Amino acid sequence: MIGYLLLILGVGLWIVAHLFKRIAPAQRATLAKGLGEGAKGIFAVLILAGLVLMVLGWQRADYVLLWSVPVWFGHANNLLMLIAFYVFGIGMAKGALSQRVRHPMLMGVLIWSAAHLLVRGDLAGLILFGGMGAWAAVSILMINAQDKVWTPPARKPGPRDAVAVAVVLVVYGAVGLIHRWLGVNPFGNLGA
User: Fold this and answer.
1) Residue 25 clears pLDDT 80, i.e. is over it
2) Which residues of 79-89 are buried (b: 16+ CB within 10 A; e: fewer)?
3) Which of 115, 123, 118 is nearest to 79 (CA)?
4) Model confidence at 162, in pLDDT bands (50, 70, 90)?
5) pTM of the predicted structure, to 2 decimals
6) What b/e readout covers 91-119, taking b as 16+ CB neighbours within 10 angstroms?
7) Distance CA 31, CA 49 (A)
8) Using CA atoms, how far apart are residues 146 and 106, in angstroms rounded to an integer?
């Protein structure tokens, strides 16, 4: 039970720390005025604490099956994860393709969340991935409601787009290897 409590606290802390400036802008401004750049440090520590609580909660949560997952969902997850990495990465690459998506990092998290919900039919997965997906969706809605006008940056296709594809493929492979090292093989048995 403690695992679920830690997991819920971690996801909650992550969400509150990220949404605080949108939920309570006056309090955020007062805090920033009083602490200056130190306010950013406080929120960074809260976000890191949320992440640590999520990891600890995930490790300690008992497995509670909620629904069965078809085997082929693993392939859908892998494809969605490749798309999630790409969408997340185009925001940092600042290439031509980044102008098509208003919130690339949040959209990447939303796709990541959906992909993992496909292959996790358990309560801990629902709390973690569902919570992170809900945070990303709410963030997008709140940003769009507050900043209604968006003008996409005018960028031409170029080397940044090609570099983004290469970096995404390398990171995708590395994350797959890390998952395998942690005991979760996202690519199945490649040797058989």
Assistant:
1) no
2) ebbebbbbbbb
3) 115
4) confident
5) 0.86
6) bebebbbbbebebbbbbbbbbbbbbbbbb
7) 19
8) 16
